[in-house]
Amino acid sequence: MCYPHPSIIRRSVLYFALFLSVTLRCTGQSADLEPFLGALLSVDPGIRGTAFYSLLAPYRKDREIDSAVAFLLRSHPADADQVKVTLIKALELANAYKEEMESKGVQLDEAFSDYWPDLIWAVGSLRNPGAAKGLIGGLGTGGMAANYIADIFPYAVDALIQKLEEPDHQFRGLAFNYRSAALSVLGLCMTRVQVADSHPDAVAKIREALLHQLASPDPSVRSWAASGLAPFRADPIVKEKLETLALSDPGISPIARSGVSPFVVRNAAATVLETSAATGFYVIRTSSAGECRVQRGDALPIGERLIGPFEASGNAQHQMCTHLDESATDGMLCWRTAPANACR
To answer: How far apart are CA 289 and CA 311, in angstroms?
Structure first.
């Protein structure tokens, strides 16, 4: 696909921004969403970015992107499905543009570098299975995209496993891949314990994929695969393979750290074998009130285990605070926390 010259993009973005501002002044917050949604699918990446921020502007104020999206959907219930579908398509277009620029060795500009992660944030907050393809395109961007992919478990499992088999990509002569990122997300999927219990077939796929990657020639990949096998540590086959890795894997970390063994795969395998899920921390949710709190695995739970376990209570609290539903409608999210100020 060919893209316009940057000067043309700048002019078209300015014209479109002027049009949007006039539309908002004339009609207020109840403006028809169609111009914004149409522009979000423009062939011009600059227009798409302007449309995205203009669409959310009346609903943001001091809100974060995810809260603004939720407010937008509540304000336009009749258009909610169309908004969701359009945001998902916009992310797929942004991913395609990013991949094309990388294949050409072109550095992404600042505007796109802001827009793309914000769009991932918006789409991820929908927790929509149809967003699996778009969110997979955000692999390697950090914890936010990883958590959102895990939240749509099991719908992204097959795509994550496919990432493990992809050849390396090239950018300006340098090779890179998403195998470690995909493995880390597969491990994170297993922390969605309530959902995992309902999808044994997907859990079995994750187990097989992680075991297969223990034979990777890349120590980083073997390390992430070993860590991801934590939920399966009681499995005799998994335990045997982890014990072998902990004793003899030759993989060395390229970064030396004082007081830490350089054998990264041995460290990962040993940590899994030595750690008990009972001492980890979970997000516990009471189904009747939708109230969440953080509890250790060896404490008597006051509700159902929603997410976990995590080695640190702070990690579990972060999960709790990023899974709040202000509308109190999603039965897989927290409607409130205990204590009430846990996320302030």
So the answer is: 27
| Residue among 307, 312, 315, 232 at smallest CA distance from 273 | 232
pLDDT of residue 209: 98
Identify whether 154 is preceded by a cis peptide bond (ω within 30 of 0): yes
Do residues 150 and 135 lie in contact, with contact meaning Cβ atoms separated by under 8 Å? no
Give pTM, 2 decimals: 0.86
In angstroms, the Cα distances linking 84 to 41, 96, 124, 149 are 13, 19, 10, 16
Question: Helix, strand or coil for residue 322?
Answer: coil
Q: What are phi and psi of 91, to 5 degrees?
A: -65, -40
Per-residue pLDDT band for 103 (boundaries 50, 70, 90) equals confident
Cβ(244)–Cβ(206) below 8 Å:
no
**The one-letter amino acid at 197:** D
Q: How many CA atoms lie within 13 A of 326 on its CB side?
A: 12
Which residues neighbour 137 within 8 Å (Cβ) at sequence distance 6 or greater?
Answer: 91, 92, 94, 95, 98, 99
User: Of the candidates 204, 202, 222, 200, which has an alpha carbon nearest to the alpha carbon of residue 213?
Assistant: 222
